[in-house]
Structure formats: C-alpha cells, structure tokens
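Data deposition worksheet. Section B asks for the primary sequence of the deposited chain exactly as it was used as input, without tags or linkers unless they were present during the calculation. Section C holds the resulting structure in token form. Section D is free text for depositor observations; keep each observation to a single sentence. Incomplete worksheets are returned to the depositor.
Section A, Depositor: J.P.
Section B:
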Amino acid sequence: MSWSSIQVDNRRFSFTECWYLAPGWFSRTIVLFAKIFRIRLKMGPPIPMAARARDYEIQEENIPPHILGEIAPLLQELTALGFNSPQFSMATTRKVQNVEVCSVALPHRSGEMLAHVCYTKLTTLHPPLLRVFAGLQTRIGDDRSLSTTSGPRQMDPVRGDLVWYHIGMPVRELFEAHLRHLGEAQNVVVERIGSVSAVWEVLERNHQRMLAERLARGVWHEVAPEPGESEQPTIAGPPPLPENPDEPVLAEIAKLQQGKKGWGSAILIFGATLLLFLFAGSWQWSWRFVGVLVPILLFHELGHYIAMRLFGYQNLRIFFVPFFGAAVTGLRLNAPGWQQAIVALAGPIPGILAGWAMLYAARNGDYGWLERFGLLCVILNGFNLLPILPLDGGRVLDALIFVRNRWFEAGAVALAAAGLLILNHFGLGRIFLFLGLMMLFSLPHVWRNGRLTAQIRTGGFIPEDPSARSISREAAVAIIGGIRAHHSPKFPLVPKTLAQMVVSIYGRLHTKAPGWLAVVALLGTYGGALGLAGFLGFQTFTLRWQTQRLMRQLSEPVKTTLSCRCEDGLDTSRSGAPRLPNQLRIAATFPSGKDSTKAFVALSQQFSSSAVISRVGPAILVSAPVEGPEVDLVSALSTLQSLGGNPMIPAGSTNQSLAVHLRAVFSDEATAGRLEASLNDYFLAPAEYNLPPPWVQEEEFDATQRATLRRRLQLHRSLESTWTIAREDPQFNAVEEKLLEAIKKRDQDAARNLAKEQEAMQLEHAKALQRQILATNSEATDRPMIEAYLRRPENGARGTDWDEWQAEMGLALRGQQPEALAVLSRAASAQGWAERKARELTLPFIRFADPSNGLLGVIHYFCDHGCGTVQFELVVTDGD
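Section C:
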C-alpha cells in the first residue's frame, strides 16, 4: 500500500465550500474572513490518504457491529430496489478527531447506476457527530458522473460532474429523483457497471479525479509525516476509544491549570502585541496620541497585575489588544468575590489618582501637556469604571452582586449591550458598536453557564476547600457529568471546549459572594472613584470651556463706527522722520470731534518728537516707529482716558491690528468710478512692487506721474490676463481633458507628462500674446515695463530670481522716481478692494501698514475729490 499525508488549506476553499463546511454562522464568518484576507487557519493534523481506492477495501465480517447496525436499514432498502454485491471500504484514525469512515458501493442489476452508503462518525465530540446517508451515481461518458445524494453539501463536486442534493430524502424517493435527473440530462451516454471489477474501476476513477483536482486547486497538498507517526490509518475495526470518555477532557483541564514556565513567552507576547497596538493606533489616531496612551494603559494594567500577584493568581500575562487597549490575564479558580472586586478596582483607582495629581500640578504651573496627559488618564480610567461588562466597573458589580443570581448576570449583560449600542448610535465611536456586539454574542454563553452552574449546584455538588489551587479529579468528573446531563445534544462539545466550561463553572461554584458589610465598603469605594473621575473631568472641561470662551471674547473683533466731516479737518503730529514706517500702538475713540481735538493737542505737546499722533474725526491713533526711541504709552493712555477716551487697542499691545471699513458719497458717478478704478488698480498689483498708493500726497509724485502709473497698471492687468486667455485655447482644453482622464486612471507618469505639456503650452501662448501687446503699444515710455514683464521667471517659480524680477517690475512701473518714494510707499501700503454703487464708493476691508498715515491719506484723498463726509468703521483683530 502507498499512503501520503494530506494537509487542508482553507485559503483555497471556494466561497460555497466556506459556507457549507462551516457548521454555524459564526464559523462561516471566520472562514469567509480568513479566505478573503488570505489567513491560514489551523485545520487539524494531516489526513492519511491512500494512493488507490482499493487500499481501503475491507471484508463485511470485519466491519464493527455498531457500524453495520447503522447502515443495515439503508442496505436493505437498496437491496429491495435491485442493488446487490456490496463492496465495503473503511478507514479510522485517532489522529484526526478519532474519525470512523465507512463506505459501501452496490451496483444496480440494470448496470446503469451505483449506490453508495456513507457512514462518518467523530467520536470525540459530545455527543458524537454521526452522519449516515445514501447516494446514487451514474457514469455518463467523457469521464463524468451524474449523482444524487441525501447527504449534506460540503466540498464542491469534481469539475464536469452533475450533483443534486436532497438532504434527508428517503432511499426510494432518492432513487426516483435520480432517474428523473438522469432523464432530464442531455447528451449523456450511460456507461454500464456490470461486475465487481467494474465497481472498483468506478471507485478508482472517483478517487483519482477527486485527489487530482483538489491537489491542483491547492485545497489539499501533500506534507511529510510527523516523526514517529505512521502514515497509514487503521483499516479494520473501530478506533480504540479511551477507557474513560472523560479522560480527554481531564487532560485539557490539566493543560489549562498547568503553570507556564519562564518569562520568554510572556515577554514575546507583550512585545509583539505592543508593536501591533502601536502600528494599529498610529493608523487610527496618531503616533503622538498612541505614545501618550501606552503608558496610561500600562500603568492601569500594572495595578491589576500587582493585585493579582498579591492574591495568588497564576499564569499572569500582560498584553495589548489593537484598537481596544490592554489586558492582564491570570487564573485563580476559587478567588472570593471581595478579592475579585479589589483586583478590578486596582487598575482604575491608581490611574484616577495619578491623573488627579497631574491635573493639580498642571494648574499650579504652565504645563499644558501635563494637563492633557492627566485628563486623558482620568477619562480612560473613569470610563473603565462604567458598570458595563467587560469593563472593570462591570466586573466589580459582577463579583459583588451579579454572581448571586444568573438572572442578574444575564440581565446586566443585556443592558450593557443595549447601552453600548445606544452610545454608538449617538455617534460616540465605533468601539461602542464592537463592544456591544461582543456583549450580545456572549449573552448565550453567559446564560448557559449560569444555568448549568445552578443545575449542578442544586444537583448535590459539594464545594471543595477554598484554599485548593487546582480542580480535583472528583470535582471535574462531577461537573463534566452535570454538563453532559443538561447540555443540548444539538451542540456537540469537543474536549477543549468542555474543559473551558468546567473551569468556568468550577470558579462560579466556588466563588463566595462577600458579606453585605464588605459589599457596602467596596461599592462605596467604587462609587467614590467613579464620582471623582466624573468630577475631575467635569471640572477640567468646565475650566477649559470658560477659558476658551474668554479667549473667543478677547479675539472677537472690536468694532466702532465713526464719521469724519471734511470741513472739520484732519490733524497729524509727526516725528522728525515722517517717511519711516510706524506701528500702531494705541487706538481710542471719543464722543465728539471736539474731545478728540483736545486729546490730540495734549498728546502732541506730551510727545512732540517721539510718536506719530493722528486725529481722524472722533478717533485718535498713536503710532511709534518700528525702530526708534521707546514711547511712554502708559502715560499716553492715561491722558486719553482722563479726557474721556475709550481705548480700542490697549497700550503696548503688539499682537493686534486695525482694519478699516470706509464709505464715501461723491458728487457724481464719474468721480466715484474713476476713484474705484484707481484704487483697484493699486490693490490688484503685488505688494512687493512697492507702488505708491493713490492717496500719497508728495511733491515728488505729481499728477503726470500719477497718470503714467495708472496707465502702466492697466497695461500690467492686460499682461496678467494673457495667462487666463492662454487657458481658453482649444488645444489647451484638449490636453486638460487627457490630464483629467489620466488622473482618473491613476496613471501618474502620464498625468505628470501631460501637466508639463499643459504648462509649456500655456507659457508659449501667453508669451505670444505679451509680445503682441509689446508690438502694438504706441507709448515708448511703457516699453521698458513690458520688456521687464516678458522677463518673468517661467511658471512663476518662487525664489531669488522671482524677488529680483518683482523689484525690477516695481521700478519699471514707478519710473525714474527717487528711492525715498519707494520707502514712503512701503510705509503707506495697504491691502483691500473697492466697490461702487452709483455715487457711493465703499472699501469693505482695508488694512494699512501704518494706519496713522494710511487712514488719513485715504480720507484726504476722498475729500480732495468732492466727498463731504467719510464714514468709517475701525475693527481691532488679533494677528497681523
């Protein structure tokens, strides 16, 4: 005989195989998830597989009686239908879950079909899983078969075969269904099976086709046998069962209680789970947050760890759970309820106290990071004290109250699941959804264990000595018997699952609920810790909210609406260097222009040469040079307040700036339109050009120069528009469509090349339009400015070349004007825009480099062009 060892690879299952092979919804979810994400599951040890089907042959007299008793009714029904000459095959193995497999093949007297009776039994399950069913097979040519079976669907049929599943159908009905399916099949040639040798030939074909296809798909693959293990299964006789069916369960219980030696595995598990948690957390949150979270979680779990060691827990392990947190596990079979409650409280209470200390230290010093660290510590540990299983608060209540009655425990789990799902519904985080679903899935397990514990306790179980560190054989056998007596046979139990149930129920049977005095003391401690966490969190958030509210109030713009009549005049008192840029240091308003005039006179006498003082209607602006002697601003503020002033910018503030909203009405629309165009020409030009604004009133900048500058600014706008016109070219649009298509296809190389082509096309077209403007311009004095614009760095690249080009453009626009005008232009520069509606001109927002110079200049500019009254609004904001 030739045998090989076959290993199953779940990753190669088809989706239908994943569905039908798994026994339940949960198992199906696991298997499907493993297939989709290519995760290999442990499918048991290798299966011995014979090279030939006849290697499984066995005589009828060697079939165990219990198997014959199961298959005899089906054999009798098949014999009555004309099937005879049964050929028996059998294999048993103790290696793969103690499996018994027996198959009987019977040819029909017509020679057109072959019947199969299949018997499979897994003896290690409780109760054993037994399947007995029949199937009919007809060879239909081209090495194919047509089959009808009453057994369950599991593996996919061999390619080319036709299989119909009628689960649980009686033999006679199955025979009729097979004839019906055979009659409905088209283009089939029935091959006769008229002898015993032909039967084995069909069985050999089935075996070889199944083996070849599953090896080719990768569902099966051959592996070397384990050392000391036989490749060949037992062919005859039933598998040897243990003398006592409880022995495998007792062996698993011993493994669960066996102490883990050495720290190597514990350190490996801790390090591996920590790395997984760090990477998962950095993906979900950020590295900085995870770096803060890990020490808080570790400090929390160390509290549990120390308490468990003090109370004699065994096999302690600390590990992290990606996306959820950390945990510590240990085993003590008969820990009293008060000890379990202390272990649960030993994690969050030290964490809350540590967070309290950090919050206290942070409030007595400028330690914002320490406050955030302490607040997170309080929140996490306080959240853990919520009365929800599996959180620490739920474990405290479970050890003190829920353990007294299974109804309490099941009700608490159901309420906890509902509460978590409600929290997720209100958008507090997906983690509550996962926890809620976990609680729902655990509810049947909790109820089953509670019911079994109550039934075993009322069945006369005698608890052992509380000091015992392991489960005695007698107690284990008694609990196993109780579980088997009350467990539903619909859900078979393997020894490992049964052993875990024994350990859990043993702990329940020996967990003594504490006295009411201890319950009151522990519940008081629990409530105090939870209340302290809530108080600290509420207090911290309240202080933060109040601070943020105050900061918002301080940062909200301070607005004052004023008006200035041109006939009242504007006053300014300047230092000896009027062209130097100044910084606004004080802004104040007065009830009337007369009051502001008195304040202006007083301040002018007080600071005759060290500050710039401007009066704009009922407002006073005090500026000081950026580089110059210090000004006693506190004294200036005191003078303003003594004269009835209302400061808008406190004395000495350097982090606040003044923006202005202006509104003026002119005598005719033409004047308003001309001023609008002049202002917008200036505002649209880059500030780096250092152009003199229209309101600058200097001898060096006469009317002719103003007209020249305005003409050049309009020409500059025409040159700037060439870049937009170039994008409207049909060829440019065609390339842009190709670029969008490449981006949709995520073809980065093509997108990069098309973007370069688009930039080059825009540059070429824009330069051509600019040269056309140069050729058609009739003003010789403007040609240097156009030629300078043509030297614009390609693609607007920022850097030294760009800065030098902007300086050149500014000089070309200004013309041959003295450098002093450029200095003044920088001091008087502003940002904003102008809008016009009929005769009304509005500057919705304008911010000056030096408001004391700029605001006066704009109002002078408006008054000189026929405006009677200028309304303006001063807005003080943070920042530049």
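Section D:
Residues 228-232, 234-243, 575-580 have pLDDT under 50 and may be disordered.
The two ends are 92 Å apart (CA to CA).
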